[in-house]
Design a protein that fits this description.
six-stranded parallel sheet, globular, binds iron/sulfur cluster
């Protein structure tokens, strides 16, 4: 199996480029077709409402967290407050030890990926098995999720066939249905053997103390009901105030993620099995993770980053993500949302280049179902960063030139003459000395359109004559 590819590896791999473009393109089409004014005339109003609900919840998060805890406990469950990954893992380790469990099944949860839960548990001889098909595939491949909704988006059926042969010792089979049946067979045994099921949470309902999970495979439902113990792990920002608010978010989440009006399963779990109920766990825990969130909450300018419902639409539409893929980002969250929450959760000094890896085209904000203004946050993060001296000098020079339009036009004219390019052509090869100079690496990756023969100002003046 190929290792994770970084930026250069992804750009050089034609198959990988095709896989990313095809998969994200399909998701873009499906989203667009599901939110047309004919099908969903209230789409923009739903976005506005969802953003308002999230903003309000963040404003009163302390109140809603307390309400949520009381509601969970009134149903016989327990809330665990975890400051960080250590706190969450310590609780799960202790519980597994006390209950004598060595196998855990887990449904898809980016929050658990964020704290590297599986690795932490594995150090203590606990086997944690991913049960979402995409997550199961990347767990076998020993990779990080490629995408927050489609973790194995970068892998073709041929890659999966090769992986299953290598890791499960079965014949190479490229038929997707057969691959699914293989995973199903392996995972059924794990569901039966597991003592603890771990799930994520798409939403937490403050008024009813319930955990809401949306999915298409049914594995989250099995993870939360087959084992005797269920643990839901979620960031504190997953709260919404009332069950009646849920409709707004469910209308947006499936459509933004995969173009589905609703996912195949929506589970609303509110505690352990009660007397007379046929299924459900005997013990029910919700681990609420802080891990940098309260710090971000205090930042009024950027706290809207916490409104994210992890739909993945901004990744699918991002020209940078579509080119460099999910493994070129330093953490588990990739794409535009990764660029704003990674520095805010992990510290800006860790990967200072991240907020700069954007063209600021704004498409992420256009498609975000909860109206997060990602470009605005990227600019704020850039302002706060320590830019290298050469960047500062270059931007000063750029600002100087841009405020002198005549000088700019003259320079562009000179440049065009130098390049010998005509209108509507692309500058793909830049002659010496530019091809050897400081822009060498930048130009090696980019073609850009040659400027038109006449500037907008000249055309405008001619038109007004
Ligand atoms: S930032 Fe918006 S578009 Fe991106 S994953 Fe979050 S909710 Fe979806």
């Amino acid at each position: 199996m190929k290792p994770e590819a970084g930026i250069q590896g992804t750009l050089a791999d034609r198959d990988l480029q095709a896989a990313i473009y095809t998969a994200t393109g399909r998701l873009m089409d499906k989203r667009r077709e599901s939110v047309t004014p004919d099908l969903l005339p209230e789409y923009q109003d739903l976005r506005t409402l969802a953003a308002a609900v999230k903003r309000h919840t963040l404003e009163f998060l302390d109140v809603y967290l307390t309400q949520f805890e009381a509601a969970v406990e009134s149903h016989g469950g327990r809330v665990i407050w975890a400051n960080d990954g250590n706190g969450a893992a310590d609780f799960i380790l202790k519980l597994a030890k006390e209950r004598g469990t060595s196998i855990l099944v887990k449904s898809k949860s980016m929050t658990s990926e964020e704290i590297h839960l599986n690795d932490r548990l594995a150090k203590h001889e606990l086997e944690t098995v991913e049960t979402d098909l995409g997550e199961y595939i990347i767990q076998l491949a020993e990779q990080r999720p490629y995408h927050i909704v489609a973790p194995a988006l970068h892998m073709t059926r041929h890659d999966v066939a090769e992986l299953f042969t290598e890791k499960l010792g079965i014949e190479n089979d490229t038929v997707i249905e057969n691959q699914t049946m293989t995973a199903r067979r392996v995972l059924r045994e794990k569901f039966l053997a597991a003592g603890i099921g771990i799930t994520g949470a798409n939403f937490l309902l403050a008024d009813s103390g319930a955990v809401v999970i949306v999915e298409n495979e049914g594995n989250a439902r099995l993870s939360s009901s087959a084992p005797k113990i269920q643990i839901a792990i979620a960031g504190i920002e997953k709260l919404i105030p009332r069950a009646r608010d849920l409709g707004v978010f469910l209308s947006l989440l499936g459509r933004s993620a995969t173009g589905q009006p609703l996912t195949s399963y929506t589970s609303i779990l509110s505690g352990p099995r009660r007397a007379g109920e046929l299924d459900g766990p005997a013990e029910f825990y919700v681990v609420l993770l802080d891990s940098g969130r309260t710090k971000l909450l205090a930042d009024k300018e950027k706290r809207e980053s916490l409104q994210c419902i992890r739909c993945g639409a901004c990744l699918n539409h991002c020209p940078v993500y579509r080119k460099i893929g999910g493994h070129s980002y330093p953490w588990v969250y990739s794409g535009p949302i990764g660029k704003i929450i990674t520095p805010q959760f992990q510290g800006k000094e860790k990967d200072p280049w991240l907020p700069f890896a954007s063209s600021l085209c704004g498409v992420c904000a256009e498609v975000c179902p909860v109206r997060i203004d990602i470009p605005k946050i990227l600019l704020a993060l850039r302002r706060e960063s320590d830019k290298p001296a050469e960047d500062r000098r270059a931007m000063k020079g750029f600002a100087w030139l841009m405020t002198r339009p005549r000088m700019y036009e003259r320079l562009v004219g000179l440049g065009l003459g130098f390049l010998g390019r005509k209108k509507d052509t692309w500058v793909s090869k830049v002659p010496w000395p530019a091809s050897r100079g400081p822009l060498r690496n930048w130009l090696a990756q980019r073609n850009f359109p040659a400027p038109p023969e006449k500037s907008f100002r000249v055309l405008w003046a001619e038109r007004k004559k």
